[in-house]
Amino acid sequence: MSDKQINILAIESSCDDTSAAVISNGKVLSNLVATQKVHEQYGGVVPEMASRAHMQKIVPVVDVALKEAGISKNELTAVAFTQSPGLIGSLLVGACFAKAYAQSLNLPLLSVHHMQAHVLAHFIDKPHPEFPFLCLTVSGGHTQIVLCRSHLDMEVIGETQDDAAGEAFDKTAKMLGLPYPGGPMVDKMAQTGNPLKYSFPISDIKGYGFSFSGVKTAVLYFLQEQKKNNAAFVEENINDICASVQHTIIQTLLQKFEHAAQEYGVQHLGIAGGVSANSGLRAAFADMCAKNGWQAHIPQFQYCTDNAAMIGITGYYKYLRGDFADMSVSPTAKASWQ
Ligand code: KG4
Ligand code: ZN
């Protein structure tokens, strides 16, 4: 094994967080995330504003990431960036920056799939999961069960047919008048609520698929009905409503995940993506693993939501495999894994 330092600059710009990280031999030296506050007043991400904000932030964010890491640009070995999926304008800013940076320094380029990176966030901190490893990736745009046979050999064995788990949280929050992004607010309110106070349907999709559009509609009709009798229903019961909806989403996710883990006979399980920051999901997942004698892997909060460190760690494994991108690579809003 060579003792060469592999220093990777990683860029993540798929949605509304501008992030840069420096990873040295698989270890995170810095991980900067500049969250774009501009979207809050609109109750969701405005794509055009996101691209513009990325353009303003990318240079200073990269500068600080290098400074914090104590690595000069001349000590870099490669540049990694998010190629897909995401908002095309946002992806373009990160991709153009990464390509120009790599070309000017004559460095190889590593093109990374955002969903694969969420899974590989588990390989930032030790102990690393052992293979086969089953990961439930729950974000604002995706809900997937992923079987990993090695770092880069992954198979999506089930995914949502409609809304993602994060959307179910965000749309519930919107109906309750909570600010965007709603997931963290629902989580906070749910902590002092009764999860069994109200019941909502748990979807039953064949195989390892999920559906979250039903729970969203059920919450909408439920609130409309309750408000007919009591205009202050939401204000008076917000904690119990949040706890009950969160409970439904967690049950929907974990019932399928437990079943998949049993069928595939895996011992190492993990949760990833923005929704894996949810305190209720983290606790219920840990309980499920303890009950079955499985090893539970839960990333630090900073590696659950979008971050460049996960792009860097994925880039590192691609670098070790010699899997480099051509300078003609372009970002795409949607792409399959490989
Ligand atoms: O992975 P992520 O940062 O971005 C995407 O790739 O989509 O996930 C964002 C999603 C949002 O829907 C947000 O509401 C949700 O993750 N989220 C949470 C929590 N923190 C973030 N949902 C529930 N509870 C949380 N604590
Ligand atoms: Zn994400």
Tell me about this structure.
This protein has 338 residues and is α/β, with parallel strands linked by helices. It contains 9 helices and 10 strands. α4 (165-175) crosses α5 (182-190) and α5 packs across α7 (233-264). It starts with 6 loop residues before the first strand and ends in a 17-residue tail after the last helix. It binds 5'-O-[(R)-(carboxyoxy)(hydroxy)phosphoryl]adenosine and zinc ion. Zinc ion is lined by residues 114, 118, 139, 273-274, 306.
Q: Major β-sheet, in short? A: 5 strands, mixed
CA distance, first residue to last residue:
27 Å
CATH homologous group name of the largest domain:
ATPase, nucleotide binding domain
CATH class of the largest domain: Alpha Beta
Unreliable residue runs: none
**Whole-angstrom Rg:** 20 Å
Strand content: 15-25%
What is the correct CATH architecture of the largest domain? 2-Layer Sandwich
* Secondary-structure element pattern, one letter each: EEEHEHEHEEEHHHHEHEH
